[in-house]
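Why do we care about 3D structure at all? Because function follows from shape, and shape follows, mostly, from sequence. That is the central idea of this module. The next example makes it concrete: a single protein chain, its amino acid sequence, and then its structure expressed as tokens.
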Amino acid sequence: MRDFSPQPAIQCGPVTEPIIHFGTSGWRGVIADDFTFPGVRRASQAIAGHVTAGKKNPTVIVGHDTRFFSPEFARTAASVMRDHGCHIVFCPDPTPTPVLAHAIIYNKLEGGVNITASHNPAAYNGLKFSGPDGGPALPEITKDIEARAAKLTDDGVPYHDIKDDFERLDPRQPYFEQLKKMIRFDVLAKAKGNFAYDALHGCGAGWLDRILADHGMTVESIRTKRDVLFDGSGPDPSEENLAPLKKLVLEKKSLAGLATDGDADRFGILDRDGTFIQPNHILGLAFDYLLETRGLKLGASRSVATTHLMDAVGKLYGVKVYETPVGFKYIGPLLRAEKIIIGGEESAGMTIHGHLPEKDGILACLLVAEMIAARNASLKDQLQDLFRRVGSEFWPVRKNLHLPDDTQKKLPDRLRESFNDFAGHRVAKTDRTDGLKLIFDDGSWILMRPSGTEPVARIYTEASTEAAAEKLAEDAQKWITE
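And the structure:
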């Protein structure tokens, strides 16, 4: 017989509001766990407080990607910011991060918010804030926003009162006109073949494929429709995730496979035989190509985790290469100062002189396509030629370690240790720009650092052979987990 006697009450702890923390590229978290409507409301109110502190009724653009609940999060952010003194212009369709960046600059806006978790798995969403220069917000700005958010409680716009009556903005044509200034489409039009494109269900669809088609190129596209699960793999243009693109490249005998991530700020490239070309190698090739073709003798910017192939190219041409911490926000100032012709990160981020202080996967893919058309050679052949000209090969490796909580907590202290030797290699230089980087006397190196956006530790290595780079990564992993 069922027991209907009174049962003890369920004891619930206090509801904790998500902490708003901006990593290397915005605030991200698992949907409904870390990234929530209350969190978006507080972050948006904090951003409104920041931008209205310097100007009355500032105009802010709001956009979103194709992720689960991204349109709803974007309308929430827009509603809150409008209620707290901002004039809102809204992009109703999924819009790439670089397109929003250009819209900020072109329309002279005070900033922009994009609801996106970029290349992260489907369970994540996020919020990026860009300032009036179109670039990712610098640390002093994000710290101010974090401090403002920490003082707020969730008393913002209720979900059922979210509006959708904002002024609309279509940023497509001005952005396409900007690309015409950056890419030599007359050269690209001479390409002897087609290109394949994988949108990975992200918001690059209708942008990269559209502008290629507009300029007479034949482009075969896949995964252009919204899928909030991203085929179960996430919108990261990694070698593993681009298996469908490889199949398409081989079937259509394409000159290359081009891919963009969830918000189209990162790129992925396959050679004509389906080989995945590492982003590090693309950056080295692009640096060399721009110096050869653009008539500008400027340097380059790379993060501490990015290939030293760029340094070798800089030495070849007699130009300076600047090293920055991880995060594209550090590249913008060098671009604005006219010091660099290219800025890049190993995580497939790139911009070039005259463009945006923000990474742009659409631009990167177009530049690679132009380079292939101009040189009429496969990317592997171009890379081997570059290795020959700089006098060495550069093979990077990157590993992500999901560590136990106790190991993760100890990592920052361990990375403060000093080394004369590491795993049998003589340390020639120690670099603490971001994490711990050990540069060895043979030119190979290791970088170990906690991720700024995910609960993982990252290992980066580079050596003159793939086997040597893999061995360095194994040595670093053993040291971290011992």
